[in-house]
Design a protein that fits this description.
- This protein has a single domain, classed as 3-Layer(aba) Sandwich (Aminopeptidase), CATH 3.40.630.
- It starts with 6 loop residues before the first strand and ends with a helix.
- Strand 4 (about 85-90), helix 3 and strand 5 form a beta-alpha-beta unit.
- It is α+β, with helices and mostly antiparallel strands.
- It is built from five helices and seven strands, in the order E-H-H-E-E-E-H-E-H-E-E-H.
Length: about 170
């Protein structure tokens, strides 16, 4: 097994779409990180690249994509234009190897560079690795949405996490 120092983080390109889809679909099938149950296609993910304002990064090892991070709009209203939602997924073959730990700081830098002042997401309470990653990088657990949605017929809670960026993080 190689360690995280062999992993390179870079901006994603459209050529990365099949690998992003493969990793995302592993996460969907695993049922530990998303309410989504419909697996994604290349066409579903290709549209993520239509708005260059939202960073997408990949982690690669030996030329193989082993993880990704992507931002998306939080809400359509103009007052929320500086808030991004995020997702980070790591190939199951690379869980526990520090891929998320390498992706997150580069992703936060990319978000700041794109002008975002806040990033947020929702996590399943049982997703210990994602919660630990968020704590490590200064995310705050804001609260819990109880019975937010059903997954496979079971109500699931989610924890809301947020991190302030740029000037918003420096303002008292």
């Amino acid at each position: 097994m190689t360690d995280a120092t062999d992993i390179r983080i870079r901006p994603a390109m459209r050529d990365d779409v099949p690998a992003i889809v493969r990793i995302y679909n592993e996460g969907i099938r695993g049922r530990g990180a998303t309410f989504e149950t419909r697996e994604r296609t290349d066409d579903d993910v290709r549209v993520w690249f239509d708005d260059p304002r939202f960073p997408i990064l990949v982690a690669e090892e030996g030329g193989e994509t082993v993880g990704w991070a992507a931002a998306s709009a939080y809400r359509a209203r103009a007052c929320y234009a500086g808030i991004a939602e995020y997702s980070i997924y790591v190939a199951t073959s690379h869980h526990g190897r520090g891929v998320g730990r390498l992706l997150m700081p580069a992703f936060l830098d990319a978000l700041e560079g794109a002008g975002f002042w806040k990033v947020l997401s929702r996590l399943f309470p049982e997703n210990g690795p994602s919660r630990a990653l968020c704590r490590r990088f200064g995310f705050r657990e804001v609260g819990t949405y109880r019975r937010h949605a059903q997954l496979d017929g079971v109500w699931r809670d989610v924890i809301i996490v947020e991190r302030l960026l740029r000037a918003a993080a420096r303002t008292p």
